[in-house]
C-alpha cells in the first residue's frame, strides 16, 4: 500500500467514526489552542515592553533626586534635594560615556490657547539635548537652540496631540501659542510617540527652553538650589557602557552632594537597560512555564489518541486479519494505523491553532491586551501535533501489525 492509499484509508476510517475521532482530537485541540493563546499574549506583551523601552531611549539613563533612607524611612523618587543645571553640566563634562545631557522641569495641567481654542496639556522645560537623549525627532520645523535656551526665548516645540488639538487645519509651525498669558512661537512639531506603558499620551506635551520655563512660565522653584531641575536625562555612547556610566555618574553625584563614604544616596540613577534585562528574565521564566504547559497538554492529548487507536485496533481485528491473509504486509498495517494517529493529531492541531488564534484576537479586542500571532507558532504547533501522533500512535499501530492472521480472523 502506497502512502496516498494509506492516507485515503485512514481518512475513511476516521470519517466512519467522526464523533469518536473528534473526541479523540479534543485533547490536542485544547492543548494547542491554549498554547497559541498564551504564546500570542506573551509575544504581544514582549513587543509592547520593547516599544516602551525603545521610546524611553535604549541608551539613556535618568538621574532623579530622592530614593534615600532618612530616619529609617525611604524617601520617594523626586522627593529629595532637587538637581540643577550645574549637575547637568558636571555630568556632561566629567563622565566620558555621556554624549548628551538635559535637565527637565515638567508641569501638568497648564492651558495652551490659540485663537480662543484652549487645551490643557503638560509643559516641559528642558535643554535641546533632550531630543537627542530620547531619540525623538522633530518632523516639522526645528528644535530650539542653545542660544535660545541661554536667552530664555519664547519658543516651543509641540507634540502631535497638541498640534492636532490647537491647529486642526495645520500651520502650527511659526504660529503663536499662549501659556499663562505668555506668547510662544511654535518652531517645531515632534514625531508621534503614542501612549507610554502607564497609559499616558506622550504626544500631549509642549517643550520650551528650561530657562523660559523657570523665568516666564513659573516653573520649578527650590530654596537653596540655583537653576533647579526635576530630573536629568543622559545619553550614553554605547549600550555596553551603561553599567560603567552608571557607576561613574553615581560616584560624581555623591561627590557633588557631599555624601560621605558609607552614606546613603539621596538620588537614584535609573538604568532602563535593567528593565530590558528584567523583561528577558521574566520572558525566560514565562517560556519555561509555557513549555511545561504545552508538554502536559500534548501528553494528555496523546494519551487520548493512543486510547482511541487501541480501541480501533480491537474493533478492526477481523479486518486486519483479512488483509494479512490476502497478502498485506505487517508494515502496511502498521503504517495505516500510524497514519490515522498522525492525521488525528494534525487535524486536532489545525483546529486548535485556528481556535487559539481566534481566542487571542478575542482577548485583544475585549481586554485591550496586545497580542502577537507569529507564523512560526503555527509551524511549531503543527510539528508538535505530528510528533504526538507518531509517538502515541506507534504502539497501537505496532500491536495491530503483530496480530496473527488466523487468530485475527477467528476474533469475535
UniProtKB/TrEMBL annotation:
Subcellular location: Cell membrane
Any GO CC annotation of this UniProt entry: plasma membrane
Keyword annotations of the record: Cell membrane, Membrane, Transmembrane, Transmembrane helix
Single Gene Ontology MF annotation: transmembrane transporter activity
InterPro entries for this protein: ABC3_permease_C (IPR003838), MacB_PCD (IPR025857), Macrolide_Exporter_MacB (IPR050250)
UniProt keyword Membrane present: yes
Membrane topology: Multi-pass membrane protein
Residue ranges annotated for the ABC3 transporter permease C-terminal domain, each copy included: 294-405
Keyword Membrane on entry: yes
Residues of the MacB-like periplasmic core domain: 21-251
PANTHER family, A to Z: ABC TRANSPORTER PERMEASE YTRF, MEMBRANE COMPONENT OF TRANSPORTER-RELATED
Family: Belongs to the ABC-4 integral membrane protein family.
Protein name (record): Uncharacterized protein
Organism: Glycocaulis alkaliphilus
Lineage of producing organism: Bacteria, Pseudomonadati, Pseudomonadota, Alphaproteobacteria, Maricaulales
Amino acid at each position: 500500500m502506497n502512502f496516498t492509499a494509506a492516507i485515503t484509508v485512514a481518512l475513511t476510517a476516521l470519517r466512519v467514526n467522526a464523533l469518536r475521532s473528534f473526541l479523540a482530537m479534543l485533547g490536542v485541540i485544547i492543548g494547542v489552542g491554549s498554547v497559541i493563546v498564551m504564546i500570542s499574549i506573551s509575544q504581544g506583551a514582549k513587543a509592547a515592553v520593547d516599544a516602551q523601552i525603545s521610546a524611553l531611549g535604549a541608551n539613556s539613563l535618568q538621574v532623579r533626586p530622592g530614593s534615600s533612607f532618612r530616619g529609617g524611612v525611604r524617601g520617594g523618587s523626586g522627593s529629595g534635594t532637587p538637581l540643577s543645571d550645574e549637575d547637568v553640566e558636571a555630568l556632561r563634562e566629567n563622565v566620558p560615556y555621556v554624549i548628551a545631557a538635559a535637565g527637565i522641569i515638567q508641569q501638568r495641567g497648564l492651558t495652551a490657547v490659540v485663537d480662543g481654542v484652549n487645551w490643557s496639556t503638560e509643559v516641559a522645560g528642558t535643554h535641546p539635548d533632550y531630543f537627542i537623549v530620547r531619540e525623538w525627532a522633530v518632523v516639522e520645523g526645528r528644535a530650539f537652540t542653545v542660544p535660545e535656551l541661554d536667552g530664555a526665548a519664547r519658543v516651543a516645540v509641540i507634540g502631535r496631540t497638541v498640534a492636532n488639538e490647537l491647529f486642526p487645519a495645520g500651520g502650527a509651525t511659526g504660529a503663536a501659542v499662549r501659556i499663562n498669558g505668555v506668547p510662544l512661537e511654535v518652531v517645531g512639531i515632534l514625531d508621534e510617540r503614542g501612549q507610554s506603558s502607564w497609559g499616558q499620551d506622550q504626544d500631549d506635551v509642549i517643550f520650551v527652553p528650561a530657562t523660559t520655563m523657570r523665568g516666564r512660565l513659573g516653573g520649578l522653584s527650590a530654596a537653596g538650589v540655583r537653576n533647579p531641575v526635576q530630573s536629568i536625562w543622559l545619553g550614553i555612547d554605547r549600550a555596553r557602557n551603561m553599567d560603567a556610566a552608571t557607576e561613574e555618574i553615581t560616584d560624581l553625584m555623591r561627590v557633588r552632594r557631599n555624601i560621605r563614604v558609607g552614606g546613603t544616596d539621596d538620588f537614584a540613577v535609573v538604568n532602563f537597560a535593567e528593565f530590558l534585562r528584567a523583561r528577558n528574565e521574566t520572558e525566560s521564566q514565562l517560556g519555561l512555564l509555557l513549555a511545561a504547559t504545552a508538554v502536559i497538554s500534548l501528553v494528555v492529548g496523546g494519551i487520548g489518541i493512543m486510547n482511541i487507536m487501541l480501541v480501533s485496533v480491537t474493533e478492526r481485528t477481523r479486518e486486519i486479519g483479512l488483509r494479512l491473509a490476502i497478502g498485506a504486509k505487517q508494515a502496511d498495517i502498521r503504517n495505516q494505523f500510524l497514519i490515522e494517529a498522525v492525521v488525528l493529531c494534525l487535524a486536532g492541531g489545525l483546529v486548535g491553532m485556528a481556535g487559539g488564534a481566534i481566542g487571542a484576537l478575542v482577548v485583544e479586542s475585549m481586554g485591550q491586551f496586545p497580542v502577537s500571532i507569529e507564523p512560526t507558532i503555527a509551524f511549531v504547533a503543527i510539528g508538535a501535533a505530528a510528533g504526538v501522533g507518531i509517538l502515541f500512535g506507534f504502539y497501537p499501530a505496532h500491536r495491530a501489525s503483530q496480530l496473527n492472521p488466523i487468530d485475527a480472523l477467528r476474533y469475535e
